[in-house]
Design a protein that fits this description.
This protein is mainly alpha-helical. It is 56% helix and 8% strand. It folds into three domains: 54 residues, Arc Repressor Mutant, subunit A (Orthogonal Bundle); 52 residues, Orthogonal Bundle (Arc Repressor Mutant, subunit A), CATH 1.10.10; 36 residues, no CATH class. It has seven helices and four strands, in the order ααααααββαββ. Helix 2 packs across helix 3. It is elongated, with a radius of gyration of 23 Å.
């Protein structure tokens, strides 16, 4: 699971970079583009970059977020992580919004749970692991071995392959 401490460090690092760019005379848009280039998906949102840019422009020196009143969020609890995992394992085609509505938690929390706890990313309309498990690797290896054996047995085997959205092998 992605540590909150690491996230705070990344955010503070970006705050420092926003402050640096502002002092160099860069615009907020240029600053955002530079951060996006360096941090990619981990970059602060455009709105956050513009807000921090304005804060530093107005004379703010502190790079840490202000303390917020109230209880800390409990959406990312182990129970919710398990519920999200169970739902996604049952139906990977569910949208993040649908999963969030089923569990009654925020969409962004669901996205973070899928990305950080289950190492998943969105591909088309399915949530898939970013890295294959040993079992998945073995299954793929077995399939590839079977295909190679079919090619050795019948050199014209690949002439029967039709490609489109998916590959289908016609066995004659």
């Amino acid at each position: 699971m992605f540590s909150v401490g690491i996230m705070l460090t990344v955010n503070m690092e970006q705050h420092v970079n926003v402050k640096f760019c502002m002092k160099l005379g860069k615009s907020a848009t240029e600053t955002y583009d530079l951060l996006k280039k360096v941090y990619g998906d981990e970059c602060l949102s455009r709105t956050q970059v513009f807000e921090w840019f304005e804060r530093f422009k107005e004379g703010r020196e502190e790079i840490r977020d202000d303390q917020r009143p109230g209880r800390p969020s409990t959406s990312n609890m182990d129970a919710n992580v398990e519920k999200v995992g169970e739902i996604v394992r049952q139906n990977r085609r569910l949208s993040i919004r649908a999963v969030a509505e089923l569990i009654n938690i925020d969409k962004e929390t669901v996205r973070q749970i899928l990305r950080n706890s289950f190492n998943m990313k969105k591909v088309c309309s399915k949530m898939v692991p970013r890295h294959l498990t040993p079992e998945q690797k073995e299954i793929r290896m077995n399939i590839c071995t079977d295909i190679l054996q079919n090619i050795e047995n019948d050199p014209r085997f690949l002439e029967n392959v039709i490609t489109c959205d998916e590959s289908w092998f016609l066995s004659i």
